[in-house]
Amino acid sequence: MNYKLIISIAKSLLKARFRQTMIAAIGVTFSITMFIALLGFMTGLNDLLDGLILNRTPHIRLFNEIKPSVVQPVNLSTAYKGYYHIIHSIKSENSRQDIYNSQAVMQAIKADERVQGFAPKIVTQVFYNDGTVDITGVVNGIDPQAETRLFHFGDYIVSGSVIDMKNISNSIILGKALAERLNANLGDMVQIITVKGDRFPLKLVGLYQSGINDLDKTQGYVYFNTAQKLLGKSNTYFTDIQIKLKDLNEAPAVAKEYAKKFGTQAEDIQTANAQFETGSSVRTIISYSVGITLLIVAGFGIYNILNMMIYEKMDTIAILKATGFSGRDVKAIFIFIALSIGIVGGFLGLIFGFAFSAIIDEIPFHTPSLPTITTYPVNYKAVIYFIATAFSLITTYLAGLFPARKASKVDPVVIIRGK
Amino acid sequence: MNNIILEARHINKYFHDPVTVKVLDDINFIISKEEFVSVVGKSGCGKSTLLYILSTMDTDFEGDVLIDNESLVHKKEIELARIRNEKIGFIFQFHYLINEFTVLKNVMLPGLKLAHFTEKEIEQRAIEKLEMLDIKDLALKMANKLSGGEKQRVAIARALINNPAIIMGDEPTGNLDKKNREIVFDIFKRLANDYQQTLLIVTHDSTLAEISNRSIEMEDGKIIRQ
User: Fold this and answer.
1) Residues A107, A7 within the same domain
2) Do A156 and A222 belong to one domain?
3) Residue A217 phi, psi (nearest 5)
């Protein structure tokens, strides 16, 4: 097939109907623009909302829960074997809250290929003391570097610096709301009283805002060494190990395995936050279906205009066929017209979509729950642009295919004689 | 036997809508090289129908057609298109130029499709043909800016571009005034006499029939005299 000739004929036909083809191309441009802007915005928002939970939640959390022993002495007694045991008022055993043999557990986790990283943690109840007022709260002993790397801890520090909590001994980062209640500013000393009654002065080096105010009213963060000192425990004392996996979906299986292997409780993220995944997948489905609907509507526009063009150009088609162009050539001409509408419209759509996304990205968006966000979140993932391009080509091709097939089947005799 | 350009063998054709009617009944004839043949007959006698069968555009018939010793039966659409392009130059009653193109491009189009020559050469040949028909100065005009007579001359130039084995015309003068009709007659005469072009023209114009070498007369789907 002589493509150069086909293209030059298609070009002339396009030029002759320039206004209509422009309108069809604008339809494609509009739909691609909206598709990209909508999906960029939606994905950005989804990532933000997912991040709220996902970034901060370990995929697996190992911990020891205080609960009654499963095996009670009566179960062990041979004398009552085979009897039905009824025991009232079982008390929880005075078991340790820390993870047994934590160093070896961490070694094992580190060696595991599926694990991206882990952060040990110590959680303990304290009183924050302000003059005569005691505020109940929680102190988390963490490793600020691991915590920032895996769980974006640093993103939520609104003033002060994360690393100071490690570099300055006996320092603390407080929830912003808690610091306000304690009337403490950066550099001030904050008194805390441990459960056992020991009093510690700690220097305030940073403020933390999680987006959940109730949490910010009670939480304080210290370096894990400091927490071990507060509690008077050894440097192997950890109550939690937070694990981030390479593949989130493996969490339930790995959690089960770890629980058995290490003899601790192990909670996976799917169990902890069952509802969140539903929301984000529903949002994704909705935005994709709206975007694809836009493209299909644009496809109908092209279909319409090509159909009209074919009725107008019956004479031309007949003459091409009579002078030796085959049905295949005629089909190629009209498919080329459709595709050029799609390519031009789609390309402009990509540019406008990007521009539109950039504009949305600049719109101020302040929310107290998300201190690091200042403008609307927009995602520029290449995959969105790729889908938009692919879809604009596919829909315009299909929209062109049916009119082109019709054109290729035009019987020149009918047209030439019918006049 | 090698100078036979076109041969029709036992052609039968029916129209089925609304009832089956036999429009061509056992048509047989031969056209040799350099002949100028006209097909005459009353309106509805089937002469145009015959022409569209001979021109490969209508494939729904019984019998056989050979162009340049090549049978048209059982050929695919794409092969028929190639034969049309290479062997046949067609002139219609209603000129049928492509309005989006210039005169030159209209003339060049079948040549570009055939692609036996480069674009430059085809352009050169197209200009020669226009010159031969005295319309060289129209070359760069858009097709829709021409008068009817000029359009028909451009259509003749287009029919000539691939040096076809045969030129077929369907009432080529049917839609022209007297002056232009005479110009076209003159062109046909020149083509036949000076350029030894084989022509097959369907017409009910008696003058055209007179200037041809041979007249095939049809009535009710049959050849009554040839």
Assistant:
1) no
2) yes
3) -80, -15
For residues A248 and A217, membership in a common domain is answered with: yes
> Would you say residue A212 has pLDDT above 90?
no
How many residues in total does chain B contain?
Answer: 226
Question: Could you read off the pLDDT of B70-107 as tens digits, one per residue?
Answer: 787 887 888 888 888 888 888 888 767 888 888 888 88
Which residue has 């290729």 as its token pair?
A: A408
CA distance B209 to B220: 19
CA A363 to chain centre: 21
Chain B residues close to A328, C-beta within 8 Å: 78
Task: Report yes or no on A89 lying in a domain.
Answer: no
Look at A326 and B81 and tell me if their CB atoms are within 8 Å: yes
Q: What sections of A55-126 are H helices per DSSP? A: 73-76, 102-111
Range of the domain at A174: 60-67+95-272
Banded pLDDT at A418 (limits 50, 70, 90)? low
- The verdict on a CB contact (< 8 Å) between B113 and A325 is yes
Distance from C-alpha of A90 to C-alpha of A72, rounded to nearest angstrom: 9
User: Is the backbone peptide bond immediately before B18 cis, with ω within 30 degrees of 0?
Assistant: yes
Answer whether residue A75 is part of any domain: no
- Note whether A207 and A159 are within 8 A (CB): yes
Strand blocks (E) in A6-148? 60-63, 115-130, 133-142
State residue B1's pLDDT score.
47
Distances (CA, A) of B106 to A361, B94, B122, B154: 53, 15, 12, 8
The residue among A251, A272, A293 that closes a domain is A272
Claim to verify: residue A156 and residue A182 sit in the same structural domain? yes
Hey, how many other C-beta atoms are within 10 angstroms of the C-beta on B141?
15
Examine the fold and report which residue of A272, A299, A321 is the final residue of a domain before the chain moves on. A272
As a whole number of angstroms, the distance between CA A172 and CA A125 comes to 15
- The predicted model gives A288-292 an average pLDDT of 85
pTM for the whole structure = 0.70
Q: How many domains does chain A have?
A: 2
State whether B100 and A321 contact (CB < 8 Å). no
Question: Do A410 and A285 belong to one domain?
Answer: yes
What does the DSSP 8-state code read for residue A141? E
Distances (CA, A) of A218 to A119, A209, B176, B192: 21, 11, 99, 107
What is the sign, positive or negative, of the torsion defined by CA atoms of B145, B148, B150, B152? positive
Residues of chain B above pLDDT 90, percent: 0
Residue B171: per-residue pLDDT: 82
Q: CB-CB: which of A16, A323, A326 is closest to B78?
A: A326
Q: Is B95 on the interface with A (CB under 8 A)?
A: no
Helices A3-16 + B103-114 axis angle, to 10: 150
For the stretch B168-183, pLDDT in tens is 888 887 777 888 888 8
What does the DSSP assignment read for A38-64? HHHHHHHHHHHHHHHHHTTS-SEEEE-
Query: From CA A312, how far away is CA A335, in angstroms rounded?
Result: 17
Residues 211-270 of A with CB under 8 A from B: none
A259 and A306 fall within a common domain: no
Q: Looking at the structure, do residues A282 and A183 belong to the same domain, yes or no?
A: no
Question: Is A83 a member of any domain?
Answer: no
E strand map for A209-314: 219-223, 240-245, 265-268
